[in-house]
Amino acid sequence: MAVTKHASSPRRAEWAGRQFVTALAPDFGGDMLRRGDDGFEAATRLWNGTIKSRPNLILRPRTTRDVAAAVRTAAQLNVPVAVRGGGHNVAGLATCDEGVVIDLTAMNRVASDPGRRRVRAGGGATWGDVDRSTQRDGLAVPGGLVSKTGVAGLTLGGGFGWMRRKFGLSCDSLVSVEIVTADGEVRRASEIENPDLFWALCGGGGNFGVVTEFEFRLHPIGPEVMFALVFYPIEDGREVLKSWREFCASCSDDVSSLALCGTVPTGDPFPPAAGGRAYVAIGAVHSGSPQEGKAILQPLRELGAPLCDLSAVTPYVDVQMAFDEDYPDGRRYYWKSLYLNGFDDEAIELVLDLTASRPSPLTTVDVWQLGGAMTRIAPDATAFGNRDAPFLLGVESNWVDPNNDEENRDWTREACSKMARFSTGLSYLNFEPETVSISRVGSSRSKLGALKQRYDPRNLFRFNHRI
Q1: Is 1 exposed, middle or buried (0-12, 13-18, 19+ CB in 10 A)?
Q2: Residue 38 and residue 46: Cα distance in Å, rounded?
Q3: Which of the four pLDDT bands, split at 50, 70 and 90, describes residue 125?
Q4: pLDDT in tens, 337-376
């Protein structure tokens, strides 16, 4: 069953939308879509196919001035506001019923300054947009593992990617933001300007306004890197995961890796004999020279007899797109996560048992190697609260048939419940499928609460993880 709220009546929605448009129109230069307009229904669809909603109005601003006008009007009319960035969100927080969606996808401009090692990205940009710009100069910002991921959502929630152990989280490279707060004012926030607000935006979620531009610090990587991606049969999973754990204990910060457990897809680039078989895969990127990385990652290619080895020296932009096809628009998604205190033999056995019990072959059980640069930032330096765990468990349930919704959700919850005894009790904000208390992810709830009261006392931006 889709996650759906009861929408308002068509007549009420039409009236509310007309009133909002009348108030906003003189100051808004973007596009407006109301119910019944061509393209409205398509514009309501989100990446996660389980999320259905009926906003009264969708706004597509072109400038920060447009965003400020929309926020002021929503505040004046006390209209609920949801903000949609450029990418995807498993919890579907980019929409609402009976309210207004500010859709930033047209604000996706990226401007790179390689001399200063800085890049500015609009609030609607994706990591693919950023990578295509910065990799021309062999530079990058730590982004996600999927190029269609939005810069805004990933950064505001922290941001795990292939460079997390070398250069930290996405939010750790954030230099400044331009943001429209709930009073409709445009502010800049950095370590110098509005530093308390900047602290909250570094991993504390989207509770404080609409970020229209991000400025990041760039790091040297690419244009080619060594990328390891090796699929082993699940029958060898126990030894593969133990050996990977040993590799993680001794590798340098140049390496960021993860273990994935799932089912091999059919078709290219996988050999026919591997299609449909359960696997344990090891993925890793080396952030230094490709030739050095090739030697360092070679042990990950020798943990057993592979079903398939896709490892190669690869353009960084292609590495960032390697998993894009696994997360198409409209598929049904329900993910959960837990930070792990360790990954001992008992935890390995349980991960393999959970892999065997998945109700959908599209689902994966993943274990992310953490540590490195992300742990060298003080826990209270940003709102991202949990930096010390050595591993992160990600249970990514993905399926197609709506009739299987509850089965997949129940299995996901049960899987995390079984793994809880190995965990810190905290989870990763960007992998939460429903709204949760911000304290669930380890942030300072009291400090965030005080800042929320200061910048958004009426809770205009309410479609977020709760403070």
Answers
A1: exposed
A2: 17
A3: very high
A4: 999 999 999 999 999 999 999 999 999 999 999 999 999 9
- Angstrom distance (rounded) from CA 281 to CA 259: 6
Torsion sign (Cα): 196, 198, 202, 206: positive
Question: HSE on the CB side for 435, CA within 13 Å?
Answer: 14
DSSP-derived 3-state class of residue 439: helix
Q: How many Å apart are CA 162 and CA 314, to the nearest integer?
A: 13
In the sheet with 31-34, reading across from the earlier edge strand, the strands are: 31-34, 57-60, 100-103, 81-84
Over the stretch 192-228, which tens digit does the pLDDT of each residue have? 999 999 999 999 888 899 999 999 999 999 999 999 9
CB 206 within 8 A of CB 83: yes
Question: Which pLDDT tens digit goes with each residue over 382-398?
Answer: 999 789 999 999 999 99
- Please report, as a single letter, which amino acid is at residue 119: V
* pTM, two decimal places: 0.93
What would the two tokens of residue 123 be?
């609030």
Beta carbons of 324 and 131 less than 8 angstroms apart? no
- pLDDT number for residue 18: 79
Q: Report all structural domains of the chain as residue ranges with CATH numbers, in order of start.
A: 3-103 (3.30.43.10), 110-220 (3.30.465.10), 224-431 (3.40.462.20)
User: Distance from first CA to last CA of the chain, Å, rounded?
Assistant: 28
In 25-157, beta strands by DSSP E: 31-34, 51-52, 57-60, 81-84, 100-103, 110-113, 118-122, 139-140
CA 55 to centroid of chain Cα atoms: 23
The answer to whether the beta carbons of residues 113 and 131 sit under 8 Å apart is: no
Residue 236 is given by DSSP the state G
Q: By 3-state DSSP, what share of the chain in percent is helix, strand and coil, each rounded to 5?
A: 35, 25, 40
Distance CA 347, CA 369 (A): 14
CA dist 139 and 167 (Å) reads: 12
The DSSP code sequence of 289-347 is -HHHHHHHHGGGG-SS--SEE--EEEEHHHHTTTTGGGS-TT-EEEEEEEEES---HHH
